[in-house]
């Protein structure tokens, strides 16, 4: 019902809000299925940071979608044909929850029975993401890094506009004394919780993706209430860009270090004298790289959207 309501609305602000509700409901479904890590990611990324970035982008466009005579019948036909092919491809799949499914006969028992002895991480999800399928997680980190570069290239802002924004605090936020005081009280707790999620992902739900988004959300909250002038005292654009690359290099560098020590790429067993200790160290380092890249990319995107908004207002005036 939420998805259908999104397709029928012309109010883009309402669309963004419904999208956040959709993500939050999806997180509830994942939680009900005991997929706590996936629910955590969906709530923080889908309902949290994505909603903030979409709201920031709305300042660059009109609130209501304009009517057009364009009728995308060809596009609708392509999407419909693709959907039919995908549905046809699922007919040969095992029934949902079937005990005879290959994943229940081979994949899942392998991880459940052997991951603790091989990796030594109580959270099986973390051991799978960071160790068994470390290549795939490295690819996801590179996707975030590439997306950040693309957005930074498209939303380039002149130095004059940056200087104007640094001196600017939203007028409507200057009067919000209660919000600003509460934000100052909440910010240390948000950042501390992000660090907890980052370094406790081996033992409970969490990891670099969730921690990076939570950390970025705290900085974005502070920026929205106090302006870029104060936020940029710590998070300068040059520093953010360097840290974005540092996170990816840290992840890939761990793999290169494993090769130099005589193992395979991202084979953490060779990092320490004990393979289990090597797994712990490798997972800790690669998750830290993921967290750094995710946090810096999210903060940079919000800063770019804010600068671009100021530039548009300046041109209109």
Give structural notes.
By secondary structure, the protein is mainly α. The chain folds into two domains: 1-65, no CATH class; 126-317, no CATH class. It has helices at residues 2-8, 12-32, 36-58, 73-89, 102-118, 124-132, 134-154, 159-166, 171-174, 177-199, 208-226, 228-231, 237-260, 275-316. Helix 2 (12-32) packs antiparallel against helix 3 and helix 13 packs antiparallel against helix 14 (275-316). 28% of the residues are buried. The model is unreliable at 311-317 (pLDDT under 50).
| Computed CA radius of gyration, to the nearest angstrom | 22 Å
Largest sheet: none
- The overall number of domains is 2
Number of strands: 0
- Envelope shape: globular
Order of helices and strands: HHHHHHHHHHHHHH
- What is the count of DSSP helices, taking H or I runs of 4+ residues? 14
Which regions are unreliable across 5 or more consecutive residues at pLDDT < 50? 311-317
Q: Between the first and last Cα atoms, what is the distance in angstroms?
A: 41 Å
Report the sheet-strand fraction. Answer: under 5%
Pfam family, one: MbhD
InterPro entries: CPA3_antiporter_subunitB, MnhB, MrpA_C/MbhD, MrpA_C/MbhE
Transmembrane segments: 12-31, 43-61, 73-91, 138-157, 177-197, 209-231, 243-262, 282-303
Domain MrpA C-terminal/MbhD: 2-61
């Amino acid at each position: 019902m939420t998805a259908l309501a999104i397709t029928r609305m012309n109010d883009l602000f309402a669309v963004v809000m419904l999208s956040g509700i959709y993500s939050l409901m999806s997180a509830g479904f994942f939680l009900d299925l005991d997929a706590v890590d996936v629910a955590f990611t969906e709530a923080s990324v889908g309902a949290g940071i994505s909603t903030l970035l979409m709201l920031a982008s709305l300042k660059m466009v009109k609130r209501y979608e304009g009517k057009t005579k364009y009728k995308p019948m060809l596009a609708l036909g392509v999407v419909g044909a693709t959907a039919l092919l995908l549905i046809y491809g699922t007919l040969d799949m095992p029934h949902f929850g079937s005990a005879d499914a290959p994943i229940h006969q081979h994949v899942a028992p392998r991880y459940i029975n052997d991951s603790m002895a091989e990796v030594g991480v109580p959270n099986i999800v973390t051991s799978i993401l960071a160790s068994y399928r470390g290549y795939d997680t490295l690819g996801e980190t590179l996707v975030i890094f590439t997306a950040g570069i693309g957005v930074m290239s498209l939303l380039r802002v002149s130095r004059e506009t940056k200087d104007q924004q640094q001196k600017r605090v939203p007028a409507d936020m200057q009067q919000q004394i209660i919000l600003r005081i509460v934000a100052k009280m909440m910010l240390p707790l948000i950042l501390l919780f992000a660090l907890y999620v980052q370094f406790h992902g081996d033992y409970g739900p969490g990891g670099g993706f969730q921690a990076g988004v939570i950390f970025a959300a705290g900085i974005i909250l502070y920026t929205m209430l106090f302006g870029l002038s104060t936020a940029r005292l710590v998070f300068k654009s040059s520093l953010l860009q360097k840290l974005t690359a540092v996170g990816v290099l840290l992840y890939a560098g761990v793999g290169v270090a494993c090769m130099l020590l005589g193992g395979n790429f991202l084979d953490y067993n060779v990092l320490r004298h004990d393979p289990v200790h090597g797994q712990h160290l490798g997972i800790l380092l690669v998750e830290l790289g993921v967290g750094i890249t995710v946090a810096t990319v999210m903060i940079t995107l919000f800063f770019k959207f804010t600068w671009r908004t100021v530039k548009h207002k300046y041109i209109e005036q």
